[in-house]
Design a protein that fits this description.
The protein is built from 7 helices and 59 strands. By secondary structure, the protein is mainly β. The protein folds into 7 domains: 12-126, Immunoglobulins (Immunoglobulin-like, Sandwich), CATH 2.60.40; 132-229, Immunoglobulin-like, CATH 2.60.40.10; 233-340, Immunoglobulin-like, CATH 2.60.40.10; 347-451, Immunoglobulin-like (Sandwich), CATH 2.60.40.10; 466-561, Sandwich (Immunoglobulin-like), CATH 2.60.40.10; 569-662, Sandwich (Immunoglobulin-like), CATH 2.60.40.10; 666-840, Immunoglobulin-like, CATH 2.60.40. The strands form 15 sheets. Strands 2, 4, 7, 8 and 11 form a 5-stranded mixed beta sheet that branches. Strands 9-17-16-12-13 form a 5-stranded mixed beta sheet. Strand 41 and strand 42 form a beta hairpin. It is extended. Pfam families: fn3 (PF00041), I-set (PF07679), ig (PF00047), Ig_3 (PF13927). InterPro entries: FN3_dom (IPR003961), FN3_sf (IPR036116), Ig-like_dom (IPR007110), Ig-like_dom_sf (IPR036179), Ig-like_fold (IPR013783), Ig_I-set (IPR013098), Ig_sub (IPR003599), Ig_sub2 (IPR003598). Residues 1-18 form the signal peptide.
């Protein structure tokens, strides 16, 4: 008799201990302003005898109750027969959005019994605000037409920026309007988050631009007044003219020319880097004369003086427009520079003292002689180094000294010396002597060799895949190279040892020794190939020894067994209704062996317990040019999938990287891409091949093929012309017993006839082209959407339906345009002319009643026979 009472009591306690979040709306959401304070109240109706705990949990810490902190804390406001717990979060940002959970329960011994929980979805908002958005703006515009097709050097892209940055959260929808028309990114405008970039602006682009920013709760409108003027442009030069070999020669006259264009017409001014603010004709009118006409722009120097006339000359084109807005100098002034140096090319004279062979610790001296006119830059540089040696003792190496000497008998001969005291092994190298002036630059190698005991090069930290690493990994039946490098002349002989025992070369396939001498160092390789019977001792430390007449040196290399790789790095991914695209990088820890492939297994939440896969991908599958792509197809729409990503090496499958995705809601299939041929296979039939489209997240149930004849000539059809059908649509529905069906035979057709072809797939949501106006030629995105938009490419240009490859004309190249993500909605093909014979009969002329009763069966049989014959 007591059991029912106990059950009723438990039910009563459960009901009265329910919790409630005061701020949540009917949808379980709560909205808070950006950088405001969040306050959430959780109340629990609890009888006086009930001992229950109540806690808040943040989205970022769903398993840790909120205590007291600088960012978030809780406090209680208990009332009669209820517990009230208030959560405060200060200065919220977008990172604070998410699910906040209030949970209640009681502690029974070591076990926590959860009694109830409630959650609220907190959404952080930020009001719309415009920054960097001046109401009056100026843009440079172009008023002169430039023929970019005939003179590429005179063509320069002109752009202008109307600035306005909108700040809000959630991110608002932003529209730009000009003269009542909404602007979109295209051939004229580029819409960005900071404003509108106008391509090749003209005075027609001046006016009022309107920015409209919309959020679900508010809308903001900003009007910007934009005015324009043209920017000057250097159309030619600056360049040297009327001078032999385009060089300045001391004592002769020289000419520099610079041409410009703009509106209003600019004037040309010449400056020298010595005083970039004073025009040259005012500095010395007798030596410098300038024609400021923009069509002439000529600077004449009556007599070049060395070295005074060397330096940078500045051609500045100035449009007489006042500084009306910030940055106007860039729009009213354009300049170009040219560096001039009066000089003759140098000549290097080889000497026997250009090479030096010395003992370790002695002094090496090399000499370089150059015959040239000044100005001349003469310096030594260590080969392959980016920094030259300075004159005198080097500040970073006091052993090295460089100095110059002039030949007393011939001042055109310049001697450059390099001296190294207390030579070391690192001093063995080529030292290049450089002589540079405007006429030419030349260099010649000098050599220093230091005789020394072999010095083993210990590389810095290298990845284990690099053969120069001192830690190498191997695997069964895979050869691995261990290497040592020695510097020191003369070149040494090499021996390898394991645990004090010398390894002999060529006795078996386990060990192979190869040595090679370079000009400044020597290198030896020990190739180890483990097998089943040597794995118990092969992984060990190995010693290489280098010996020459000066002595012996050695180094140790460790050889270890490889392991499986670590987790690969998932850089990013994108998911549609049926396809998942991945961007994957190799794992940080490879286990010692190169990564061979990636493997992917997956399963749907709530589906079968087993995993599908693994699906194998090459290492470059994430690249844009990769085939196959790193993608997973055939997924169902609006479904949660759990995935595991592995890296595989020769050792085996590595540690998995687990993640989950949710596909978009399913929709109709994507457009079907036909592997198109403009000519039918024979006069009375045609085989249509296509690529199975994206399913839209729902299994494809079949295909529909529509075909009709048209009166237009295939070579004369353009986008602005209407297709003139000469027959109604004929519909074919191929038998769909294979989800990978990708062809169909169309018959009978008429010879020498142009046909319009449409291939669609359908699933439970409908056909690929439902709602699309097929009267116009256009493209649909390969990825299906609930509201597909027809896109037209190159409006007004003639379309080439034949995909001709022999055409090289620029206009035909535009007509052959094909974007990988856009699929044409229909295709045209033409049947070839027939010979004098009649078309083959599709069926005999039987008139018996038996034939008439079996007519449909014979049609199907004849059609199948034709498919077999012509395919």
């Amino acid at each position: 008799m007591k059991f029912p009472l106990i059950i009723l009591l438990i039910i009563y306690v459960f009901n009265v201990c329910g919790i409630n979040i005061k701020e949540a709306d009917v949808d379980g959401n709560y909205y808070v302003q950006w950088e405001g304070n969040l306050a959430l109240t959780c109340s629990q109706n609890t009888p006086s005898f009930e001992k229950a705990n109540i806690n808040w949990f943040l989205p970022s810490q769903p398993n840790k109750p909120v205590g007291y902190g600088n960012k978030a804390y809780v406090y209680r406001q208990d009332q009669v027969n209820s517990i009230v717990l208030v959560l405060i979060v200060r200065s919220v940002t977008r990172d604070d959005s998410g699910i906040y959970t209030c949970r209640t329960g009681r502690q029974e011994g070591n076990q926590f019994i959860e009694m109830d929980r409630k959650s609220v979805n907190v959404v952080v908002r930020k009001s719309i605000m415009a920054t960097n958005c001046p109401r009056d703006q100026w843009i440079p515009v172009s008023t002169e037409a430039t023929n970019c097709m005939t003179n590429v050097t005179d063509c320069e892209d002109v752009t202008a920026m109307v600035q306005c940055t909108i700040l809000a959260f959630p991110a608002p929808t932003i529209h730009w309007r000009f003269k009542g028309v909404q602007l979109t990114t295209g051939a004229k405008y580029i819409i960005t988050t900071t404003g509108v970039t106008i391509l090749n602006p003209t005075h027609e682009d001046s006016g009022i631009y309107t920015v409209i920013a919309r959020q679900p709760q508010q809308t903001a409108v900003f009007d910007l007044r934009v005015s324009g003027f043209s920017r000057p442009r250097i159309t030619s030069g600056p360049s040297i003219i009327k001078t032999h070999n385009s060089t300045f020669v001391s004592g002769r006259e020289a000419y520099l020319q610079c041409l410009a264009s703009g509106q209003p017409p600019p004037t040309i001014h010449w400056y020298h880097e010595r005083d970039p603010q004073t025009e040259l004709q005012t500095v010395n009118p007798r030596r410098f004369s300038v024609n400021t006409n923009r069509h002439v722009g000529l600077l004449r120097i009556s007599e070049v003086i060395y070295p005074k006339d060397s330096g940078t000359y500045i051609c500045r084109a100035v449009v007489p427009v006042s500084a009306t807005y910030s940055g106007s100098t860039l729009a009213t002034i354009t300049e170009a520079k040219i560096f001039i140096e009066v000089t003759l090319p140098p000549m290097l004279i080889p000497l026997t003292t250009m090479h030096s062979y010395v003992e370790l610790g002695s002094t090496a001296t090399v000499q370089c002689r150059v015959r040239a006119t000044t100005p001349l830059e003469l310096y030594f540089k260590r080969f392959n180094s980016s920094l030259p040696y300075k004159d005198g003792v080097q500040p970073n190496d006091k052993r090295i000294r460089v100095w110059k000497e002039i030949d007393i008998n011939d001042p055109l001969n310049h001697d450059l010396f390099l001296k190294i005291e207390n030579t070391t092994l690192d001093d063995t190298w080529n030292y290049s002597c450089h002589a540079i002036n405007q006429g030419n630059s030349s260099w010649w190698n000098t050599t220093i060799q230091v005789m020394q005991t072999p010095q083993m090069l210990i590389p810095s930290e290298l990845i284990t895949e690099n053969e120069q690493s001192k830690l190498r990994f191997g695997w069964r039946y895979k050869g691995t190279n261990l290497t040592c490098i020695s510097r020191g002349m003369p070149h040494p002989s090499w021996t390898w040892y394991r645990r004090g025992e010398q390894i002999l070369n060529g006795q078996n396939l386990t060990f192979v020794i190869i040595s090679y001498d370079y000009w400044d160092h020597s290198q030896s390789w020990l190739q180890i190939t483990p097998c089943l019977y040597t794995e118990h001792f092969i992984y060990d430390d190995y010693v290489c020894k280098a010996t020459n007449i000066k002595g012996t040196n050695e180094s140790t290399v460790s050889f270890r067994r490889s392991s499986v790789p670590g987790q690969p790095t998932l850089e990013s991914y994108s998911v549609s209704q049926s396809t998942l695209f991945l961007n994957v990088s190799p794992p940080i820890h490879t286990g010692g062996m190169p990564i061979l492939t990636y493997e992917l297994t997956y399963r749907a939440f709530g589906g079968p317990e087993g995993w599908y896969g693994p699906v194998t991908y090459p290492l470059d599958a994430s690249k844009t040019y990769a085939k196959p792509k790193f993608e997973l197809t055939g997924l169902l729409g609006n479904t949660n999938y759990q995935l595991k990503l592995f890296a595989r090496s020769i050792v085996g499958q590595g540690t998995p990287y687990s993640f989950s995705v949710t596909t978009s809601p399913s929709t109709r299939p994507g457009p079907v891409e036909v592997i198109h041929s403009s000519t039918a296979i024979y006069p009375y039939g045609h085989i249509v091949n296509w690529i199975p489209p994206m399913s839209g997240g729902s299994p494809i149930q079949g295909y529909r093929i529509r075909i009709r004849s048209i009166d237009n000539d295939l070579d004369l059809i353009s986008m602005i012309e209407n297709v003139s059908p000469s027959s109604s649509w004929k519909v074919y529905t191929p038998s769909f017993n294979n989800p990978y069906v990708d062809y169909y035979h169309l018959a009978p057709l008429k010879p020498d006839q142009t046909y319009q072809l449409i291939v669609e797939a359908y699933n439970r949501h409908g056909y690929s082209l439902d709602g699309i106006a097929i009267q116009q030629y256009g493209y649909l995105n390969r990825t299906p959407t609930s509201t597909p938009q027809l896109q037209q490419i190159f409006p007004g240009e003639r379309l080439n339906y034949q995909n001709l490859k022999r055409s090289t004309n620029a206009v035909n190249l535009l007509m052959n345009f094909k974007q990988p993500d856009l699929i044409p909605i229909w295709y045209l093909f033409k049947t070839p002319p027939a010979d004098e014979l009649d078309p083959p009969p599709l069926m005999s002329s039987l008139t018996s009643s038996l034939y008439k009763s079996c007519q449909s069966v014979i049609l199907v049989g004849i059609h199948t026979f034709l498919v077999y014959i012509f395919y």
